[in-house]
Design brief:
single chain, alpha+beta, Immunoglobulin-like, 4-stranded antiparallel sheet, elongated, membrane, transmembrane helix, DLA class II histocompatibility antigen, DR-1 beta chain-like, transmembrane
Length: 165
């Protein structure tokens, strides 16, 4: 009897957790070479299964050059889908991935930003800081070396009471 009650409690917990809605996690990325690239709108970890993913170009829905995967189960009682848009960069063009799901009161818009991703910007900043630090150490080392060998005075000149030779 105890085993049956535990089993029914676990079933009840399972079905109550499945009745909850889970908002999707959405990421945008560029895939492929610049001449034949695609924007990918990855939608993960949503529940229930029904979802609509569409692309907007300058506010207009795009129907050509769009492909999507089937909605796939994650194995964690949630689902995922990926939508692809053939993309050739154009100046001033605004690309948006629009996701409609029951967990949201209105469709969510995810804007494509063609600038460098934050992780790439961080790598550049760290590299530049490292380079500047290296230059400072090289200059400090040269000054120390020239002072210790006595060659600095010959390069700068001798100054005494405001007059320099």
């Amino acid at each position: 009897m105890y085993v049956l009650n535990c089993f029914s409690i676990h079933l009840l917990l399972l079905f109550s957790s499945l009745s909850e809605v889970v908002e999707p996690n959405v990421t945008l990325r560029l895939e492929g070479p610049s001449s034949d690239s695609s924007l990918v709108c990855s939608v993960h970890f949503f529940y229930p299964k029904h979802i609509r993913v569409t692309w907007l170009r300058n506010g207009e829905e795009v129907t050509s050059d769009v492909t999507s995967t089937d909605i796939l189960a994650n194995g964690l009682w949630s689902y995922q889908i990926q939508s692809y848009l053939k993309y050739t960069p154009t100046t001033g063009e605004r690309i948006i991935c629009m996701v409609e799901h029951i967990s949201q009161t209105e469709p969510k818009l995810y804007h494509w930003d063609p600038s460098l991703p934050k992780s790439e910007k961080n790598k550049i900043v760290i590299g530049v800081c490292g380079l500047l630090l290296g230059v400072v150490f090289v200059v400090a080392g040269l000054i120390y070396w020239k002072k210790s060998t006595g060659r600095l005075s010959g390069l700068i000149g001798e100054c005494d009471y405001g007059t320099c030779d």
